[in-house]
Amino acid sequence: LSHICVLQKTDITASSLAALACSKVKRVWLVGRRGPLQVAFTIKELREMINLPGARPVLDPADFTGLGDAVKDAPRPRKRLTELMIKTALQKPREETAAADREWGLRFQRSPQEVLPTADGTRARGVRVALTRLQGSGDSAQAVPTGEVEELECGLVLSSIGYRSLPLDPAVPFDPQHGVIPNSSGRVLGAPGLYCSGWVKRGPTGVIITTMNDSFDTAQAVLEDLQAGVLDVAASREGFGAVGSILRSRGVRPVSFSDWEKIDAVEVARGKAAGKPREKIVDPKEMLQLIGH
Ligand SMILES: Cc1cc2nc3c(=O)[nH]c(=O)nc-3n(C[C@H](O)[C@H](O)[C@H](O)COP(=O)(O)OP(=O)(O)OC[C@H]3O[C@@H](n4cnc5c(N)ncnc54)[C@H](O)[C@@H]3O)c2cc1C
Ligand SMILES: NC(=O)c1ccc[n+]([C@@H]2O[C@H](COP(=O)([O-])OP(=O)(O)OC[C@H]3O[C@@H](n4cnc5c(N)ncnc54)[C@H](OP(=O)(O)O)[C@@H]3O)[C@@H](O)[C@H]2O)c1
């Protein structure tokens, strides 16, 4: 929904920008199977959507009836997020927002059943959704189909239903229920000397900075274990050298950090010429050429 003039100053790729320049999208529905008290987005993400220039939020006040009271004792982030949704649903749009030619809205208690094709079968014309009611309350409430269905018209369907990490190797412990490697500060439980980080450590939430902070926490654990003499650092152990020889035996040429720095420098230089932070190279062959592979 962002206008091209806003997007072209970001690090969006040239090909994505060209595709979006032809976009006819005027309205986006975010559809969730549960209610406003269970939304997965953050208040920062909601604010960004509310403040999208040229786009109007469409929230049905009826979806929020009585929620102000229900959320009074909820944890602060959930409370503030719900209050912002309520405020947006109830307030009269500013003049420039009311005149916006694009809009986005939230549709609750609807679970997707089927993507409906156009008569010639070449495109989507909508989604059949099952209406749901909530069983239980708060984060653990479950969406149960009421038996009613509804067709939601649309020309494009994007699914966004989260992620689940997969087990790496039978030798590495894995909790299939939560999709994580059981760990304490990154130390894999039951496997001394093995560490994990990122979504497989914490579950699939958060942005790159969250993942970075996670890695610092794990690295700290490794350093502590080194200092405490818990890790086997005997000279007989090959360490990274072992990985290098496996890769060589398979004919793989790894990309080093300094290789990446060369690609980064070219992307940043190309971006500068185009008035954006970087022009991302999207063809792996071109990246490898740049580093002489
Ligand atoms: C659609 C989407 C958009 C996002 N946009 C943003 C954004 O704009 N800004 C932002 O800050 N965050 C964004 N995020 C969040 C960000 O991508 C994650 O926080 C971050 O990538 C998690 O890092 P990770 O290292 O845990 O996992 P990943 O980045 O998923 O890395 C895991 C790696 O392990 C590899 N792997 C898996 N199994 C094996 C195996 N058996 N052997 C070898 N390798 C394996 C995978 O190929 C992958 O490269 C986005 C997430 C999604 C899903
Ligand atoms: N630009 C960015 O910075 C960016 C972009 C994308 C993602 N991310 C980050 O990546 C993380 C993951 O994001 P995500 O959006 O992929 O996942 P998410 O935040 O975990 O949200 C997944 C949503 O899908 C719903 N869902 C799951 N299974 C479903 C099903 N079978 N039927 C109907 N609904 C279903 C969930 O509803 P229930 O709660 O009912 O299960 C939930 O609302 C987030 O922390 C996000 O911040 C960041």
TrEMBL record:
Residues that span the membrane, as ranges: none
Molecular function GO terms recorded: oxidoreductase activity
Keywords, comma-separated and alphabetical: FAD, Flavoprotein, NADP, Oxidoreductase
Keyword field contains Flavoprotein: yes
Tagged with keyword NADP: yes
Cofactor(s) essential for the protein: FAD
Origin: domain of life: Eukaryota
Protein name, as recorded: ADRO protein
Taxonomic source organism: Crypturellus undulatus
Upper lineage: Eukaryota, Metazoa, Chordata, Craniata, Vertebrata
